[in-house]
# Entry
Amino acid sequence: MTLGLVVMLVAFVVLLLLNTPIAIVIGGVTLLAAWAMGYDAALVTVASDMVGGVDSFALLAIPFFILAGDLMGAGGLARRLIDLAASMVGRLPGGLAVINTITCMLFGAISGSAAAAVSSVGGTLIPEMNRQRYPKNFNVAVTTASATVGLLIPPSNVMIVYAIVAANVSVGALFLAGAVPGILVGLALIVVSVVVSLRQGLRGQSAADQPAFWRSVHRAAPSLLLVVVVIGGILGGVFTATEASAVAVLWAFLLGVVVYREIPLGNLPEILLRAARMTAVVLLLVGASRAMSQLLINEQVPQVVSAALVGMSSNPLVILLIINLLFLLVGTFMDITPAILIFTPILLPVTMDIRMDPIHFGIVMIANLCIGLCTPPVGTCLFVGCSVGKADIGGVSRAMLPFYVAMIVVLVLITYVPALSLWLPGVLMD
# Structure
């Protein structure tokens, strides 16, 4: 290992322990490592790589999808999805928990943000579950776990990030690949919720408490249609993923301002500013991570990692197990976007050596890192859920244990049964 890589690793760990923003960590350690490696004009090299990292037409989809998600969140989408879920599954044992899971899946898929799903859905359902004497820690746990599923169900910003870093990966195919795994994770969480509810004697809603089914469908259908328009448009060749994101913004604007009328025009500047801030954070991450990835590639780190993994075992099943364990560990201290940006260039060549489809690898990576979003010590969704539910992280983490087990079981299936990810793109895109 060269001196520059040692400097990079040590600085990375130290800055993370100091709670430095992750984009600053990535950019800073890359610059330090470049200087230590003796790069001529290290600052210019790193800056050039950062600019090149964000100079992509496909990346324009991210700010549009972020804005569409903000518009949906402000436009009363959560309440409509809750009513729809309640009309379908409210009578099951622990009905509110099942409603919570389905709503988080739908909201996360439409908004593209797991944290937004925790905040919007949890802000409504957690107090209601508390009022009906569901255990507080369980309420936060089911919301936190369920919100991450939306990142597997299209459209998904993190899938766009992976497709850009991986190169030559179709965003449309990746969207389709996440649908079945996302539904499987959601079903597993529902099973856990029902089992826990049965053990704790939590009953479902009465018929009188349930919203009318067709009325709920009518109210939620325009929002759900967004997914159909986006995916259908991409698959039908009507527009690219980037153009689809612009269509999503227009659709969300019309719903929130014209149809639902829950977004006053005076609130639009605040929504636009919030989306711009989030976009700036994401693009800074993309640029800094591109610079780090380029430096690692120049130092042949992917080849070294590949040789090390193959040296540990030549069995593809064992290599996949090691990669999964690595991602589960990484997810506990790093958010999903920087993890994808940093580790895709390192590990994708390894998986290609064992003839793993890049689309399948992307879904496995995202499923792994979704678990990290609700895992201490740095789980973003876990912290948001505890804040919304006014709960202790330790107590919620214990309540999360059966949900972790369910998510890991499905992760194993996704990893070792490629057809779960590749069947739908194969059917619809061939």
